[in-house]
Amino acid sequence: MKKATSIALAIMTLCAGAQADELLVGVQIPLTGPLARVGMGTQEGIRVAAEVFNKTNGKHTIKLVTVDDESAPAKAVAAVEKLASEGVVAITGGYGSNNISPASDAANKLGLAYMTSGGVDDGLVEAGRKNFFRINNTAGYQKALVGLISDLGVKSVSIIYSTKDATEGLATDVQKTLAAKGIKVAMHAFDPAITDFKPIINKVKLQDRSEFIAMVGYENDYVGILRAARVLKPQAKAIAGVWSLATPKMAADFPDLMPNVYGTAVLPFPVNFTTPEGKTFGETYKKLHNKEPDYLGQFGYVQSMLLFDAIARAADKGTLKKGGVIEELRKTDKQTLIGRVQFNAKGDNPNFVQRMGQHQGKQVVLVWPKESANGKPVFPGVPW
Amino acid sequence: MKSNKLLIAVLALVYVGVPLLLGANAYVMSLVIASLVIGGIALSWALLGNLGGMVSFGHAAFFGVGAYTSAVLSMQHGVPVFAGILLGGVGAVVAALVMLPVLRLRGPYFALAILAYAHIFRILATEWQSVTGGSGGIASIPRLPTLFGYDFASKTGNYLVILTIVLVFALVYDMIRRSPHGLALRAMHDSEDATRVVGVNNTLLKGLMLLVSAFMCGVVGAFNAHYINFLEPDYAFSAGWVTIPIVAAIFGGYRTITGPLVGAVVVYLVDQLFVKNLMPTGHQLVLGVVLVAMIISSPDGLFGLARKFMRKKDATA
C-alpha cells in the first residue's frame, strides 16, 4: 500500500513538474477579415515551430494560445490583453502595421515580448518600444529588388505602387536607391481601391518606355497590373513585384499571367531544403498541414523558434517574469531559414535580405542573390 | 418616480459596479470600452435616422475626421487631450457642413452621396501627408491624461470617459426628441411634405440634425484615437464604423434612445465574449443570422421584443 502511494506521489510530482514546465505563448493573428489569408499562412508556420520545439527542446514545452484579431486594431489590443490574462509569457504573430502598432503597444504595457514578421513599416521600430522585435523589414525587400535590377543591367524602371502604408514606403526607398545608382525611375501611385490599371500601364508604355516594371502592391494589384500589361503590351524587358507574388499559389491560380515574373521569395518551388533545420521544418509542415510550405509559414516558423528559444533560456535562468525574454531576444544571433538574425536596440533585424525568385514554367526559381540562386534569370522575359 | 429610482440604480451600477466587478480584467474592460465606442456611433447614427429621417452610410467620415482632428491638434499643436476630443467633434461638424448639399437628396441617393463623402475624406487623409502622415498613419497618439491625481489612461479611466460621453449624448438626444423641434422632426420622418405644408423648415432641421450627429460621432472617433493611440486612413474611415453600429442600432431598436446603446453593448460583448469563444473564426455569421431573425420577428429591436413579451405576459396573467 505504501509502495503504491509513493508511486502515485512520484507520478503526481512528475506530472506537476511537467505542467510547470509548459510555457504558454500567445498568438495574436488575423484569421478573419482582409488579412486572413496572410494571417493563416503565418499561423501555420507558428504551429510548426511549436511542434518542432516541443520535440527537440527536451526540457520545456510550448503551448500556443491563439486569438483571432479579425484584422482590426481594437481587437488586436483586446487579443493581447486576453492572452496576457491567460498567463502567456510572450506574444508571436501580428500582421499589418496598423494592427501590430497598437497590439505591441499593449504588450509593452503588460511587459510582454512581441515578435512578428508581419509589419515592415519602419514606424514600428522607431516608436521606442522595448518589447518589440521583428525579423524582416522594408530594407530587406528593397535590397533584393534593387539588387536584381542592378545585376540585370537595367537602365530605366517604372515603379507602380499602392498608396498603402508599407508599399509606399518601400517604393520610395527603392526609387531613392535606384536614382542614386543613376537608373532612371518613374513613379506611379495608385489607390488600393482601384482595379483598372490600363491608364497607368499606358503611361508606362507611351511616356516612360522603361526597361523594367516594378510592382509594389499586393496580390490583387499584381493581377490587375499584369492583366492590363497583357492587353497593352508595354516594351519592358522584365516585370517584378514584392511579397505574395513568386509563390506556387499564384502560378497555379494565374498560369497565363505569371511566366517570367519576378518576386521576392524565401523558397524555390518545388521546395528544396538543404540544411537539417530546413528539412525538419519542411517535413513537419507537410505532416501538419498536408501541403508544401510557403514564405509566410517560413517567416512564422523563424520568428516563433527564435522566441521559443529565448523563452527557454529565460526560463532556465529564472527570469521569465522579470523581463528575461526581452533580454534574451536582444542577445539573439542565429543562422535561420531566412538568414542570420540579430536584433538591434530598436528590435529590428539589420541582416535581413530577401531573395528574388522568378516564375519559370510551373516552378519558382531563385535567381538572386547568386549564393542562394538555384537557377538563372530568364531576361528579357515578360508574360505577354 | 419609480423610473427615476431605477435610472439612478442603473447609472450607479454602470459607473461603480462595472469597474468594481471587471476593472481588474483588462481584456473584458477593453471589450466594454470598444462596445461603448460602437454604441456612441450607433447613437449618433440613430439620431440622424430617427429624428432626421436620413439613413447614413457615411458616418465613418465624421468618425475619421474627429479622430484625425484630435490626434493632429494634440500631437502637432499641443492641445490638451480632452480639449482635442471636443475639437474632434467640431472638426466633424466642419466636415458635415461640406456635406450639407446632400440634404437635397432623399433615401438611397442621400445614403450613397454621404458614403461618397466618407471616401473623399479617406483619400484626403491619405494624400495630406504633411499633416496626417499619409497612408503610414499616426502612431503614439497621446493617451488620456492624469487629472486631479486620477489616471484617465487606465482601463477604468477610459471606461468612465467613454461612458460619460455616450450618456451625455443620450441625454442630448432625449432633450432634442422632447423639444418642439424633435416633434417636428418625428412628424417629418413620417411625411416630409405634410410638415412643410404646416410651415416647418425641413432642410434647416435636417441640417441641424446632421451637424449634431456629426459632432457626436466625431467626439467618439477622437476618443477612440486617444484610446488606441494609432490612426491610419483605412482604419479611421473604415466601412466597419458604419456597418457594425447600424447592426447594433437595428438590433437594439433604432427608434429608441437606449436601443442603439444597449444593442451595441449586447451585440459586441455577446459576439466577442461568447460566440467568438465557441467559433473562433466565422463567428460573425451567427450575428448575421440573429440580425435577420430579429428584423423578421421584431423590426423594433430588442426593446420591441421585450414589450411584445411583456404584453403577452400581461394578457395571460
UniProtKB/TrEMBL annotation, chain A:
Pfam families: Peripla_BP_6
Keywords assigned: Signal
Coiled-coil ranges from the UniProt annotation: none
Highest taxon, organism lineage: Bacteria
Keyword Signal: yes
All residue ranges annotated as the Leucine-binding protein domain in the record: 25-348
InterPro entries: BCAA_transport, Leu-bd, Peripla_BP_I
Signal peptide residues on this chain, from the entry's feature table: 1-20
Family (UniProt): Belongs to the leucine-binding protein family.
Name this protein carries in UniProt: ABC transporter substrate-binding protein
Source species: Massilia litorea
TrEMBL record, chain B:
Localization per Swiss-Prot or TrEMBL: Cell membrane
Transmembrane helix is among the record's keywords: yes
Top-level taxon in the UniProt lineage: Bacteria
Chain segments annotated as transmembrane: 29-48, 55-75, 81-100, 157-176, 208-229, 235-254, 285-306
InterPro entries reported in the protein's UniProt record: ABC_transp_permease (IPR001851), LivM-like (IPR043428)
Keyword line: Cell membrane, Membrane, Transmembrane, Transmembrane helix
Membrane topology classification: Multi-pass membrane protein
GO MF: branched-chain amino acid transmembrane transporter activity
A GO CC term attached to the entry: plasma membrane
Pfam families in the cross-refs: BPD_transp_2
Protein name, per record: Branched-chain amino acid ABC transporter permease
Source species: Massilia litorea
